[in-house]
Amino acid sequence: MVTDNTRRSLLKAALIGAAYPLAGCVSTSSQPAKPTLIGCSISGRNRFNAVVADKNGMPIRQVQLPDRGHGVASNAAIGHGVAFARRPGTFFQVFDYHSGESLKLRAADSNRHYYGHGVYSNDGKWLYATEGERGTSRGIIGVYDVTANYEKVAEFTGFGLGPHEVIVMPDDSLVVGVGGVHTNGRAPLNLESMTPSLSYLDHNGELVEQVGLDDHKLSIRHLAHDGSNTVLCGQQYRGEPDEYPALLAMHTLGGKLTPLQAEPEQWARFNHYIASIAATEDWILATSPRGNCYGIWSKHNQKLVELSPLPDASGVVVQGQEFKVSSGAGGVVSQLEPGEKQVLQSGVQWDNHWSVIG
């Protein structure tokens, strides 16, 4: 089995070699690059950063992090970015993405840890972070007042164990990917009794709806929505290693979770794990760093239409109707739809997820 450290070493070597066809990676514009994308990166042994990039994924500036980051959030109204520590995380770091100045390093409460994700409210006044209670993994959404220097003002709970990602819907409600796993550090303790769910909360934190998948060993982790009412959720399979269930599903409030379709041998390529997800009106794209690939599904018939190799395929966002996909080997893929794509080399060892500004 390839370990995480081995995989990272191989990807670091790929940065030195010709891992991608290069295409226009140096801008000829005299205009200052506009911050458009933010993601976490690895820049050496025990060296971690949040990187602000332009619309093509070319780095503009970076902010040093005290430890490995995971998810990122951005607030265009005030120019803030937030990097969340990888679970079980001990911090989130707020910074000015225009200047690169670190504004606040917020340590987790003594009996809490962060799960690696958070999101701003639509009006930018609140920051929501997925958290857990140490010793029990009781799920919490921490609510932080942006105007009060990110003071914690509330906790939403009552939806299960081990929440991973939270997103905000257009109507200001929250959707939480609840993994259902009780952990000690990163070690799972309850795989036989885990209860994952997709949970909807109103803006006051009240549970509105909760749905699950038929296989309780599909831990719901990463989320996206299509700009309207459709939620996409990506799973980590915690069952038998030679079984390959569907790892991606879609849902609308009041309906059932609908698994997306691919052949078992295609799901096997994803190595039991979906990381980042993004959706347009017509297409859904999901990455798998463990599988070194990404897939594109038709949103209309839920079928896989493209499966592409990409070393350490990590973050994906949508700009307009175009997907931007990052790689731990430094590549940035731009793709409007299945088929033709452009790949640039950013020189950044991107890690996990991206946030698009605006």
From TrEMBL:
Q: Which InterPro entries match?
A: TAT_signal (IPR006311), UCP028101 (IPR008311)
Q: Which Pfam families match?
A: DUF1513
Taxonomically, the superkingdom here is Bacteria
PROSITE patterns (UniProt xref): TAT (PS51318)
Q: What is this protein called?
A: Lipoprotein
